[in-house]
Amino acid sequence: MLLFLNPASKICAGENSWKLTLFTPRKEKDPFWGLFVDHARKATSDLGGQIEVYYADGNREKMRRQIEQAASKAGDQEVLVFPNFKKGAGSFLKIIEKKKVPAFIVNSGFTKEENGGRPRQHFRFWIGQLLPDEKQTGNMLARTLVEEGLRRFKKHRNGPLEMIAITGIISDYASIERTEGLKRYAMTEKKVFLRQIIPASWKADAAETGFVLLKKRFPKLRLVWTASDVMAGGVIRAAEKMQLNPGKDLIVGGVDWAEQGLQSVQQGKQYASAGGHFLEGGWATVLVYDYLQGKDFAEHGLSWKSRMGLIRSSDWGSKSEMFQRIKPDNINYRKYSRYLHPERDSYDFSLESLKSGEYMVNGN
Predict the structure, then answer these.
(1) What is the CATH number of domain 135-269?
(2) Which pTM value belongs to this model?
């Protein structure tokens, strides 16, 4: 658990003091959630609040206990922020409803089967949610891998390209949605044959083991879609041990824009990575801040979707500068706030919003 307070803030004390309590499903240095927390922390600092972060270490019951503990001591100007981790949001929201503490869902939402409803529908203290467009991401990554495969293996292709997919924890929203996007694309694209989908629990070692088995089963395999850069790294490691050349014999894609994944894209071992959704840590903080200051975002919506960006090894040179721009210290999250900028018609939660420099520390 980590408590961060910016003592230099103009509104960190007194009647306007506010707090964001964030619950993450992994460990402190997780390749994705570490970035998510960094942006939430920067936004909280920019907006003069406090942030407390809990880490569940992959344990849903631990997160539930943490939420119950935090809700029991929550102050008037505090919002609890958490994902629907392993389909636990229903029980989490029952806690906040009982304790009458506002909550905001990030990253992972309710699946159709859960029938959790909309914010402020069944749970009035569930004030909103901000989620990545996971289906679009899974579809985009699959399309990118197939297009490159058709270009690269044109002379050696006899029939559809063979693809496998390695997803995360089967009960996770991101796994379900990303895989659904992949399957929808594969069903309509006759030039690819999706051989098999296996789970690897977001772990590199499990992805490595799974790839070895599937490569032996499907020796003509050319494309590997993975739901995270960490698992893509496991595939690359396995391929190299099998004397394959990732980037030439095999086209691998992943999600998260994790440091390891971006390095592999730069080296050409991993063809593509989708990401940028760690920025939602900062954007969700802006919505929470405005809500607590009396500028409810409800007039613009309660459920927000953000689209990920894509970088390929073939265009690394032209896009690499973007990764320097989206570091937390370079972004001024105060500029996103409609409470501080009532002249704004709506919120611009997109990667494109950072291109003009308007939301940057030294921007307009």
Answers:
(1) 3.40.50.2300
(2) 0.90
